[in-house]
Amino acid sequence: MADQQLSAPSRASSGIRHINHDHRRGYVKIGNHLAQHRELSMTAIGLATHIQSLPTGCKVTIKALAERFPEGEVRIAAALRELEAHGYLARFQERLPSGRVVTCTVSYNNPPAARSAETARERRAPQPSQDTEPDPDPDPEPTPAAEEAPEEDIPEVELQARELLARLRLRDPRLVLSERDTVRLAPAAAVWLERGLVPGAVTAALTRGLPPTVIHSPAALLAHRLREQLPPRLPDPWAAYPVLPDREIHPIRACEDCDLAFRSPVPGRCKDCAAAASAA
Question: What is the residue range of 54's domain?
Answer without folding.
Answer: 32-107
